[in-house]
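Anyone else keep sequences and structure tokens together like this?

Example one:
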Amino acid sequence: MKNLLLLMLVLQTTIMVHAQQWTTLNPYPTNKSIHAVAFATENTGFIAGDNSTFMRTTDGGETWEHIPYPVPDVQLTSLKFRNEMHGALVSWSHIYITHDGGETWNYTQNQLMGDYLDSFFLNDSVGWLSGTYQILVKTEDGGQTWTTLSNSTNFSRHYKVIEFANEQTGYIAGYRWSFIDPVLKRTDDGGINWQELPIPEGVESITGMSVLGPDNIWIAAENSIFNPDLPGSMAMVFHSIDGGQTWTSHTLGENHSTGVKKIKFFDENSGYAITHSNLFVTNDGGQSWESSNIPVAMFANFTDITITENQSVYVSSSTPGLWKSTDGGNNWENKFDGEFGYFSDIMFVDDNLGYLCSYDIWNNYVLKTEDGGQNWQESYSEPRTNANRIIKLEITDLGHIISATNDRRIIKSTDQGTNWEVLDVATDVSINSLTVPSDEAIFVGSSVGTILKSANGGESWSEINSPIVSGYTLTKNLHFLDGLNGFAVLGNQSNQGKLFRTSDGGQTWVELHFGYENSIRGISFDNPLIGIVNVTDIGLLKTLDGGQSWSTIYQNPSISITYVKAFDEQTFLATNLNNLVVVSNNGGETWQTAFENDPNSDQILSMFFLNPGKGWLTGMGSLIQVYDNPLMAIEEKLPLPTAQSSYIYPNPATDQITINCEKCVAIRFYAPNGSLVKEIHRPQSNHIHGLKFPAGIYIVEMISGEDVFRQRLIIKP
């Protein structure tokens, strides 16, 4: 019997070795939400976003480099460049200032009650920061020191945006106690004293403001405003030429459920305003506005807008995305590369050939890769109607690709995705699960409990019995091993779970009592008797008798297992998002940590492991990652008899070792990447000289007749 080697080498050593990790394949440059964009020059620009994402381009967005942010897991929301040299990035209590165009950054932390939300620098020396709980601080030395002008929880006002016309006159805006209680104020003494300004009717919050002069100011309503004379609501901005005492309203567009996030005028005539999913442009001083169509593939959530010295316009999105226009918003180019969409499932046939199903605003897709996920091509597409989407992907032993849609259809290819056939499922309920144990046997399920089976590859369907229980729904964990043996997981709103098994193709179901009421997040069976389940807040349970009895094989209350896989009766794998990979090659008796990293907040949508050394995942923000650990994928062979003493010494070693293997017919040395670096046939001596291997961890394989023994070898520098 051949297994996959699940031997992970965990060493307490200072020797440098090749680190295995999840590698991002898509998108470029990041999948993190982008909240702010600013350009110091036409070519040098910056983006900032979730989880301390801070990046720079020096070629107008063609390529990007990460700038290390000194604090992890900060949501970076406000980025401003006053000129090509001076910029400021603020968020929470953190202040990041550059005076050399972003080559170097000076970090300071100024902890107050609340968070910084915006910054404005009048020149290289004088600037202000605003934030929640009436935060207002000022610097007169370029950000080296800060003076607190206000910060209080009494009569709390949250200042979301600040701008000054000169060193004395400035404006600040946001909201008071709630998001429907706006505030707008003016100062004429540099921020020491402020006066309340009247706010146009219907405005509930202000996040967009553009100050063109001491008395010339634009503000934007963050909320849409209802107009009884029109169907729906309006996105509106307001203009004042008397310092905010009176206002003229301007409608950007009708039937908008969200208001205006940002408004920016770059001279008296040219201005831009972004809503949640639209950009509006004016070239006549705001008298008229036209919608500019940014070709987004996903549901956009525009976050910021900036313009360069040559009038190039950039708009950022949290989806993520960054679009550039060089002609005033008529045409746009996406500066993020890759595939964009909601990737609902991913599977691979081998190391290179794989498929994923996805959807965007307009279409459903099946994408195909032949290089392990580096590049993807469209294999199938169809228009989306009534919010239909492809939800699940399966690949049979013969290579048939079968996808299910939530609107009762099966999409099938028998020639590796060259041609596709669409088959209707005979049901009137929405499909939420798909399991395909063979080329002919296909099962689909619905949350209401309906389960249908096809015995002829989807040509015809019949409803089978369901194990549905009152108060529970059928989860996506419907798992059939063949046309007869299957498992179904139920769940309810109290995070409780039930597990059922059928051995007659769904004619009858038997509840399996696994010892807990907790919900089941994952299930994987190698055969009708041996399988594992992932129980929320408990860990992994194993059965050897088809679910009649269970034993706990992996338990860690601090870890929430998100994916489980039983490759055979001995080989199990479990993951916690993409932060932890643990494996067992002895049926769960012991586990090795194959990969462990600091936690992150990426929301993983689907995961697939081809073997314990190779896996892929998809996540939010069009994320595709690959995990590659070649040592984990070496085939396992039985060890030498325990009576035979087999070992290597010295270990660690330099260029010579002694191997105690009297009957060895071959000795092989595998490098950290799994490649064979040296092989000795019928060694004449147990002393091996002149290895001359680079420092690292190696696997030494000793073969004696039918038996094979492997041992770890450390080569010192």
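And example two:
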Amino acid sequence: MNHTNASAAATQIPRAPIRHLVLVLGDQLDISATALDGFDPTQDCIWMAEVAQESEHVWSAKQRTTVFLSAMRHFAADLRAQGWPVHYVTLDAPDNSGTLAGELAKAIAACQPQTLVMTAPGDWRVLQDLRGAALAAKVPLDVRDDLHFFSTVRDFAAHAKGRKQLRLEYWYRELRQKTGILMDGKAPAGGQWNFDADNRASFGAKGPGAVPPPTRFAPDAITQAVIALVNTRFASHPGSVAEFGWPVTRAQALLALDAFIQERLPFFGEHQDAMWEGDVWLYHSHLACAMNLKLLGAREVVAAAEAAYRAGAAPLPAVEGFIRQILGWREYVRGIYWTQMPEYEERNALGATADLPAFYWTGDTDMACLRDAIGQTLRHGYAHHIQRLMVTGLYALLLGVKPQQVHQWYLAVYVDAVEWVELPNTLGMSQFADGGVMASKPYAASGKYIQRMSNHCKGCRFDPALSVGEAACPFTTLYWDFLLRHETMLTANPRMGMQLKNLARLSTDQRGAIVAQATRHREATAAVASAHPAGKP
């Protein structure tokens, strides 16, 4: 299909007043979305708006802003090509108010709709803003379920009711049974629910081998125009779009899905937690961005993976591990988000107060693992789940960074970051700021974990075996300091028993030396951060 500039009025908008003004957000680019059920182009109109607010409420990186705006413009062009009217506001429109609520208010005045219709958004803040605009204009707002997911928030609330603790495994098994995915009758495929123990191997000394090249897409005219706009309008924002290649259309997303199933899924499982210096893509799917934009449906992605297993094209541990990320974690974090907000965002169970180090915006650090993970994040808007949880997230946890700052960084820099999925993963799983709602223990580890799962330590000036001294690894120092600072609280957690037994073996002198080294490291990091207000270089 030929795409035209989304700002061009390719289709006649029905004369006001119209029946339905259908709101389509940047993460709802699905022609089968519930908001479009019953759409009549003769009396309804679609509303889409690019606003600076969505790139500025967090310091959104250039890759993230580009992928959203380009995908939105492509989707609007597709809608117009089939004759559907679209009221589309571009970022550079001269009268753009800069906010979703402001642009919606203007569209309501121009179109005079009887009703506003939308699929439930993925962001609490956005829902409140749009509800407020509808209320101010005295126009009804019909918010419909997002059927892109396997479950509803109501389903999760019913699952959670009466439980003292929420745990992924029970929710995941419930959804497996409900959907029949990876089930052989009433039993799980392969006789067990979870193959996580088979999916924790490192690459070893030889590395990952001949990894297939990533599926990337050269920017077309629409994307090139967006890149130019982003480089101008958000010139000071972090990251680069020089290597932009994410799928921004449904057709591209389907090609990316097929390439993953054929080329990467068979090798995904065993090494899904492994890292390798300078190798960005490895055997991961790189599909989260397309899924969170709704260019791909969760059901079709899971169905493709299960079909590969049933056909003997991919081993069960790899397929189960991949499906668990979608049918399990993705559904679980969404349920946590919508049943815990808005208070959830402010939680800080560990009382963390440090500022996010400035190098999170530049990658300028002597720690090889952080330098590699942050560097690729700024270049591509991407890092795989272990780089996020056990490198960038782990360091922030051990350092004691205020979790809201960590959340804002993750939301800003990753192309797949939408708040419903990013916030629980960051505050809950990564930073343990919710005190155990999301995960059963803090994901605290020393530099030895990174050494075991990567080759980063081989070329790093720090030694993960050392906690004190000039060559001490900051991860290892801060790990023991973290246990010391939170020893009383962690004693009540049965999953921390082994780590606390190891802590008990440290002498008083060893403890004092670790605390002194951690304090010096924390002070040095804070001095650099203070030179850059809000962590922005």
